[in-house]
From TrEMBL:
Residues 1-23 form the signal peptide. It holds the Pfam family Polyketide_cyc. SUPFAM superfamilies: Bet v1-like. Coiled coil: none annotated. Keywords: Signal. Gene3D superfamilies: 3.30.530.20. The keyword Signal applies. It comes from Schizophyllum amplum. It comes from the Eukaryota. Residues 44-74 form the Coenzyme Q-binding protein COQ10 START domain. This is Coenzyme Q-binding protein COQ10 START domain-containing protein. The lineage of its organism: Eukaryota, Fungi, Dikarya, Basidiomycota, Agaricomycotina. The keyword Nucleus does not apply.
């Protein structure tokens, strides 16, 4: 638990330092209260629209993402849609997550670890392109009081033209403490590696 708290504190300090260095305010919405949170950021040497397109190109996730191995647009009955190219707010997502994440780099042929694979069913709650560049999806639970978690991701342009990527998820509800003790460290690792591998993917394109 102390290691997880130390990691979160170090990540927060890194985020604040990056914002101070670049004079950049966070583009994420105000943080909601919760039991614990995971967060990450990266400075990406690419225009904001290039990073935004990569972030929303869900079919490419298996090619580079060690944490979210697949993210599929689905109907209200969670049947995968034929068109995976145009996510919009209100659509459903089927997300295959590795917690902890696989060791990078990965590609579409990298096998999953079945012992650490979880399926998550979520709603796209926010999807705002220019000028906001923010998106969010919320885990679907029968009762939010059990577990309430919305993952926010946001982009902003730094003064030097590079893109600042941020991600945050706050977990609340009666199951959040159990989630933190069992998967909290792995979730934070997943956020960290997705940020770093998104940077590597976009910059290497």
């Amino acid at each position: 638990m102390w290691i997880l708290q130390r990691n979160r504190d170090t990540l927060l300090a890194t985020t604040l330092l990056a914002c101070a260095v670049y004079g950049q305010e966070s583009n994420l919405p105000p943080e909601e209260p919760g039991v614990f949170k995971t967060q990450a950021n990266a400075t990406i040497d690419a225009p904001i629209d290039v990073v935004w397109n990569a972030l929303l190109d869900f079919p490419s996730y298996p090619d580079w993402n060690p944490f979210v191995r697949s993210q599929v647009l689905a109907s209200d009955l969670f049947i995968p849609l034929d068109d995976q190219s145009n996510p919009v707010a209100g659509q459903k997502l089927i997300i295959n997550v590795q917690t902890p994440p696989l060791d990078p780099p990965v590609d579409a042929d990298t096998p999953s670890d079945p012992l650490h694979a979880q399926m998550s069913y979520e709603n796209i709650t926010v999807l705002e392109g220019a000028p906001t560049y923010r998106c969010a999806w919320k885990q679907i639970m029968i009762v939010d009081a059990l577990l309430n978690a919305t993952r926010w991701q946001a982009l902003s342009t730094l003064e030097d033209g590079r893109t600042y990527y941020e991600a945050r998820e706050v977990y609340s509800g009666s199951l959040a403490t159990t989630l933190e003790s069992t998967l909290g460290e792995g979730l934070q690792q997943g956020f960290d590696v997705q940020a770093s591998e998104l940077k590597a993917y976009v910059e290497g394109a």
